[in-house]
Amino acid sequence: MPHRTTKHDGYRPPRHPVRGLVGLFLASAAIGAQAAIGYPGTHTDQTRYRYPVLLARLIASVKAHHMAVVAKASASRGAAARGVKIPGNAVIMVFRNDFAVTMLKDSVAAGIEAPLRIYVTANGHGTADITYRTPSAVFAPYHNPALNRLAHTLDPIFAAIVRSAAGPGAKPAHLS
User: Which CA distances in Å does 170 have to 94, 128, 143, 158, 167?
Assistant: First the structure.
């Protein structure tokens, strides 16, 4: 017997169940594609360096470009401390105080984005990849012209840091 709608239960049977399934499939595909692509402005380069070498090169490059390593986080180091071995990975958080002061003057809300992150990961080829999001992509959602000017100042600095760390022969693995 079909379910009848009453004004108390709020249930309405779908008119075209196939359309609902197609819509659900398309929404799932869109979400899956976004997860595979990553966020806009994300750049990943495959390098010829092994993970610990690329990590050291990145830290040296940050300093050479007059920026500061504010913090480091590594799930692989944390796992190793527990006796678990996973491929090397580290997030290097990079910024500089004068940029931080300018950013906060332009947008206190954008403070959650600092420090900006650069991610180093061991890959299955015995080498490591380096990934970052351009500062202009990170700060774009704030729709703040002054913040956008700061981000465009930071874009070439971060590109140079990554280019220097990745070294010659690095291949773009992903641009979104």
Answer: 21, 10, 33, 16, 6
CB contact at 8 A, 53 and 175? no
- Which pTM was predicted? 0.78
Structural domain including 57 reads 39-175
Q: What is the pLDDT of residues 132-142, one digit of tens each?
A: 999 999 999 99
- Residue 23, in any domain of the structure: no
**Residues 142 and 109: beta-carbon distance below 8 Å:** yes
Kindly state whether residue 17 falls inside one of the protein's structural domains.
Answer: no
Instruction: Tell me whether residue 17 is exposed, middle or buried, using C-beta atoms within 10 angstroms of its C-beta: 0 to 12, 13 to 18, 19 or more.
Output: exposed
CB atoms within 10 A of CB 58: 27
Q: Are strands 68-73 and 42-46 parallel, antiparallel or unpaired?
A: unpaired
